[in-house]
Design a protein that fits this description.
Elements (H helix, E strand, L loop, with lengths): L12 E5 L2 H13 L4 E4 L5 H7 L4 E5 L7 H18 L3 E5 L13 H8 L8 E4 L7 E4 L2 E5 L6 E3 L19 H6 L6 E4 L8 H12 L5 E4 L7 H12 L4 E5 L2 H10 L17 E5 L4 H9 L4 E6 H6 L1 H16 L4 E6 L10 H21 L4 E5 L1 H9 L5 E9 L2 E7 L9 E5 L8 H7 L9
Parallel strand pairs: 1-3, 1-4, 2-3, 4-11, 5-10, 5-11, 9-10, 12-14, 12-15, 13-14, 15-18
Antiparallel strand pairs: 2-16, 6-7, 7-8, 16-17, 17-18
Helix pairs in contact: 3-4, 7-8, 11-12, 12-13
Length: 447
């Protein structure tokens, strides 16, 4: 596809998210900052790009976090070619805010090596930390809160991330973490350096780039650090297309630097019209609390091991869920047992369960379409949405920091316009699933 095929001269950022929940967080971040933004659920066609119209920010939701490096090559190479053809100044490889990854699965290092040739800038900017999600990068080391109000822990001591079922995080220093994924020389700029003048900071970065690093890591320990990081990224992107990696704080940094577009006034989420379906395929401790607090739903417990391996069981449980929705009940279907994502022994086990959850969801919605849907779990969200006959997501409202309510774009009349919430395991308050059903009072969240 040639750049001349698409009239999109306003495009500033093109991002690929390594899972669907993170993709919607970046979608919400850009939309709430006033950027015209659309998230595609796969590599968009020319017709879909034309239907989207002029955009400031274009996203693609992917599942690279659950892929091997060889699979990532097949997934990301066409993405890099498209982003280059669209002539986006900033290419953003959107990672989880806790940088979930390993050399063998979801490698951020592999993603950078695949996408970098499509950018060409000497600077590959890695942004650590996202303060509005209680993620902080200090002197290259990542710290994260556990749940909404839990204590802040260094990542390798984090109660959830240190025992992640697929990519346990044993290294908090992101420079060393990325070195294990093939980026042997990652330079860094620490947050106290932002206090110096712009000229001095420019010289510091130029000196680092003269050493030919694989990437430069930028600390973010406070929202005030975003604008100087955004200035450096945008300044270099104006010279030549630039690759960034990191969470939604990449877009936050750029918009903090621009400060030119009117922020979107945050709307309340209205109560759901009709039955609500929630599918929780990964019971992180926070999601488990949310499931326990969801008293307005009929709970359906799914045997994870059987769901992943037994199609007859999958179809039977899909029929049960559809029947209860058809009776007007709100339904929360959640996995449990030794085969659940929280206890999956291998990446293959986790992927098989996530794919089965996607097939289950498609089965249910073909029988009983719903107007509002929630999906919990990064890999579950990725595979479940991919199983739907849909091509895009647009931002609608914010349910919690890191949790957006979107509406679906589909050529299937029964799915087009469906409201959908995708959430990562650690995101949202205990009452999130209840708020998805009952709606919220008018809210205002900081960027």
């Amino acid at each position: 596809m040639l750049a001349s095929d698409i009239e999109n001269s306003a495009l500033k950022i093109a991002y690929y998210a390594d899972d669907f929940t993170g993709a919607t967080d970046t979608l919400a971040t850009a939309a709430r900052a006033g950027l015209r933004t659309l998230l595609f659920l796969g590599l968009p066609t020319t017709a879909q790009l034309e239907r989207a119209g002029p955009l400031d920010c274009l996203g693609i939701a992917g599942a690279a976090r659950a892929m091997t490096p060889a699979e990532m090559q097949s997934e990301l190479e066409p993405v890099g070619r498209l982003f280059a053809a669209l002539d986006a100044p900033v290419i953003h490889y959107k990672t989880c805010s806790t940088f979930d990854s390993a050399a063998h699965i979801g490698s951020i290092g592999a993603a950078i090596q695949i996408l970098r040739p499509h950018a060409g800038n000497a600077l590959v900017a890695v942004v650590g930390g996202q303060p509005n999600l209680r993620r902080y990068c200090v002197f290259g080391n990542l710290f994260a809160g556990a749940g909404k109000d839990g204590a802040i822990s260094r990542l390798d001591r984090h109660p959830t991330m240190r025992q992640h079922p697929v990519t346990p995080m044993h290294e908090a220093d992101l420079r060393l973490h990325l070195a294990q994924q093939g980026l042997k020389h990652v330079s860094s700029i620490a947050y106290p350096d932002y206090e110096q003048g712009d000229d001095a900071l420019d010289r510091q970065l130029a000196a680092l780039l003269a050493q030919g690093p694989d990437a430069v890591l930028f600390d973010v320990a406070d929202a005030a650090h975003l604008a100087p990081v955004g200035r450096l990224i945008w300044q270099h992107a104006q010279r030549r297309r630039l690759l960034t990696a990191g969470p939604s704080s990449v877009v936050q940094a750029l918009t903090a630097h621009w400060q030119t577009m009117p922020a979107r006034r945050e709307a309340a989420v209205a109560p759901a019209k009709g039955p609500v379906l929630v599918l929780a395929g990964s019971l992180s401790p926070m999601t488990a609390l949310q499931v326990g607090a969801a008293t307005s739903y009929r709970h359906v417990v799914l045997d994870a091991a059987r769901l992943a391996k037994d199609r007859d069981y999958l179809m039977h449980m899909g029929g049960q869920i559809a029947a209860r929705l058809g009776e007007g009940d709100h339904v929360l279907a959640c996995t449990s047992g030794q085969g659940s994502a929280a206890n999956a022994g291998t990446p293959a086990d986790a992927r098989a369960l996530a794919q089965a959850c996607g097939e289950l969801l498609a089965c249910v919605l073909k029988t009983v379409p719903v107007q509002r849907l929630g999906i919990a779990g990064g890999d579950t969200s990725s595979h479940a949405v991919q199983a739907l006959d849909a091509w895009g997501l647009a931002y609608q409202a914010q349910l919690a920091p890191g949790v957006a309510l979107c509406h679906l774009h589909s050529d299937n009349y029964s799915l087009d316009g469906m409201e959908i919430m995708l959430k990562g395991g650690q995101m949202g308050a205990d009452t999130l699933f209840e708020e998805l059903l009952r709606g919220t009072a008018q809210m205002s969240f900081g960027a």
